[in-house]
Amino acid sequence: MKKLVYLLTVVFLVAACRGNIGNFTEVDRLPVIFPDYTGIVIPPNIAPLNFKIEEPGVDFEAWIYVDKENQLTVRSSSPSVIIDQAKWRKMLDANKGKSIYTDVFVKQKEGGWQKFKTIENRISEEKIDSHLAYRLINTGYVLWTNLGIYQRNLENFDEKPILENKSIEYGCLNCHSFANNDPNKFMLHIRAIHGGTLISKDGRLQKVNTKTNYTLNAGAYPNWHPDGKHIAYSVNDIGQYFCSGEIRIEVADMTSDLIVYDVEKNTVSTSAKVSTPNRENLPVWSPDGKYIYYLSAPPVRDLDDRINDKYDLLRIEYNTADNSWGKIDTILIADSIGKSISFPKVAPNGKFLMFCTSDNGYFTIHHPQTDLNLLDLQTGKFRKMDINSDQTDSYHCFSSGGHWFVFTSKRLDGLFSRPYFSFLDENGNATKPFVLPQEDPEFYNSFIKNYNIPELIKGEVPFTPVEIRDKVLEDAIPAKIDPGVDTLYMKQHLQKKESSDSPHV
Fold first, then answer.
1. Quick one: fold of 210-463?
2. Domain 9-123 of CATH type 3.30.1560
3. Which of 6, 100, 195, 216 has the highest CB neighbour count under 10 A?
4. What is the pLDDT of residues 335-345, one digit of tens each?
């Protein structure tokens, strides 16, 4: 990302200094700033929270401090407050667990200075993982010709591509996932041209084809087992529909099953328990690796079913020692809450499961009514989280430390999804979310791509885009079916699906 130069901004550290404002009148409210970095908890390793003062004036000044003895002062004729990175980082490192304050002053065109109520934020004791990986993509009703998967250093403003599809003849990139937030162990999926699944393990890249003669399709919607040796997938036959009204686009399943890919053995496992006429979807592991949580909806009878059906939340036992499937438990029934469930994710401590709800379906990013929910796995009680907006709040990922999490929201404009961060305490209370900081405070007013599938990782991906591209251009190694799979059942299962009267895309 290009560095921005602000000629009118002067940043300096002032010890025991109150600035050069002189007399001022006090305004009994917080200043309007963009983005809204007020009343939030921030990681001690986050990049500066640059912001724009949206108050009329001709001169602007901001005092940022934990104590007035060490004050960071930004003075400018521009309303953009650009904070020195090194001094910001030093202030946060020295004051973990403390409040950090911001005083905003605005000089009127005619008249003197005004001071607004002090903004109080808090610096967390717990760091957030240093990087964020995400896909940048146009809105769903615009061609996805140009897209890529990127990584952003959360401690500064550096953004680098992991892979851009222009380097692989514009194939579709999706379904990236990391094992235990580890940048060295990841996978991403390529559709259409040069299709296959790219997996990073043991310091090398490998391209595989997880589709077998006994499974519907290649694996999608991945989630790594805590051992870093198994990946749970759904295999889906998906349709995309353009609609009128509030929801302009809908993505829906015709059929879907679950599989587990053994990374070391290059084998695919499934079972009659998770390859049924129902639609099994979006699998995720429990932190202890003993269970797979997943969604289930009835078989499709017609197009209306496909769009309007609701998904339940289930759980199945899985033994990685012999790739065997065990008992199924129903965790939450959609009809009992009047909502469809999607994107379950278990917190690293195993105490909470965060999930999305929407009126129907599972592809929540296009549903304005989508909300984040929190299920207490010890009590079985759940509630809609306080951090939701009146726009889409969807896909989420926990940091390795267990408390910080990221999710996407369209709350800024109702059009584009942006990454937001929040801290979840031991009681399941989440702090006010804040948007990913940018060097230019007005960045989100003009950036017209969506942040998709944000994943927190503990460092930078160790491969260059060229190394990844070269591996993608190779032929994929075909996966084998696990010897324990009932292949006769799977053949019959697939035949029934192929001969079904369900509508095809």
1. Neuraminidase (2.120.10)
2. no
3. 216
4. 999 999 999 99
